[in-house]
């Protein structure tokens, strides 16, 4: 492997781009890509109540096929600096590993597809378009990043045929998994209101905790489904229960709970909201309590059906690693949840064992393998 992928990763890690700060990471990519002949456009976006965010779109070539690599240069805060073995923004290589905030999530992945792309576009095999969609808002509220970049692409009549997001997808080793979809995510907030009173006189009060307890039992009573071809069963998890009561002799006036549903492609957010409303109404209908229920749809479920281009990726992984990757839909959300509305998208990157942790790191040889996988895939993809 050319050492350039590692060098790119170190340069990016040394930019302290804690979301939403750009800190020179996009400047570095723009400079490298412009020198390689890419047409670069910086896309700063703003919205009231949120921080301004800078983003980068770059492309080279013309016409079909058009493959887009997508990712983010923003990172989560490093936490206590003195807890790190190596400073989080130095990009230190030690014992065969590259340490630094963003090494795995996902500056290392960007460095790998950057190096593979820079080499490939100089070959006669490149015929079509290759682009990069790099945001600075993936780890933040995701308002001024990929969503608005996709709107800009639509207005500019730019529509890639396929996209790869370089998120860290592998639990243990590179090539273990390709993410071909993601579960949907629905958040819920339930507040049950009663009547405050002294515990010695319960007949003069109405305890909302009784209601919240019945509601929780109802929410967890039944399985939502049994899974589908590409997804595990949907599930609801209670994430918080709180009454804000600091005394032992007062019946509180209010009880609250938060919950999240991760759902598969047999469900949709609207039907789930109706089901939850029905369950809670049934649980609380005979009690002299009032309640409010609020939802937030944070991600829709999607799946990219395997086809020739996904096979080209699995074949490339097997060529480099002798591993047949699983086609997975596990894990949390990523910007693929937005990109899927533009074009078919999958995710393939480095290992995710240390993401968001103290001493985040990647194995240097993993970066070598991922770069070779991307290179092999580019040859197959543009030959389809």
Structure description:
- With 384 residues, the chain is α+β, with helices and mostly antiparallel strands.
- It folds into 2 domains: 4-182 and 301-381, Aminopeptidase (3-Layer(aba) Sandwich); 184-299, Alpha-Beta Plaits.
- 30% of the residues lie in helices and 24% in strands.
- It has 9 helices and 19 strands.
- It has helices at residues 4-13, 25-35, 103-120, 146-155, 208-220, 269-284, 308-321, 336-339, 364-381, and strands spanning 39-42, 56-61, 66-72, 92-94, 97-99, 129-135, 162-165, 177-179, 181-182, 184-193, 197-198, 235-242, 250-251, 254-263, 290-299, 302-303, 326-328, 345-347, 361-363.
- A hairpin with a 2-residue loop joins strand 4 and strand 5 (97-99).
- Helix 1 (4-13) packs across helix 3, helix 3 packs across helix 9 (364-381) and helix 7 (308-321) packs across helix 9 (364-381).
- The two termini are 25 Å apart.
- The mean pLDDT is 96.
Question: Helices, strands, pairings?
Answer:
Elements: H1 4-13, H2 25-35, E1 39-42, E2 56-61, E3 66-72, E4 92-94, E5 97-99, H3 103-120, E6 129-135, H4 146-155, E7 162-165, E8 177-179, E9 181-182, E10 184-193, E11 197-198, H5 208-220, E12 235-242, E13 250-251, E14 254-263, H6 269-284, E15 290-299, E16 302-303, H7 308-321, E17 326-328, H8 336-339, E18 345-347, E19 361-363, H9 364-381
Parallel strand pairs: 3-6, 3-7, 7-18, 8-17
Antiparallel strand pairs: 1-2, 2-6, 4-5, 5-19, 9-16, 10-14, 10-15, 11-13, 12-14
Helix pairs in contact: 1-3, 3-9, 5-6, 7-9
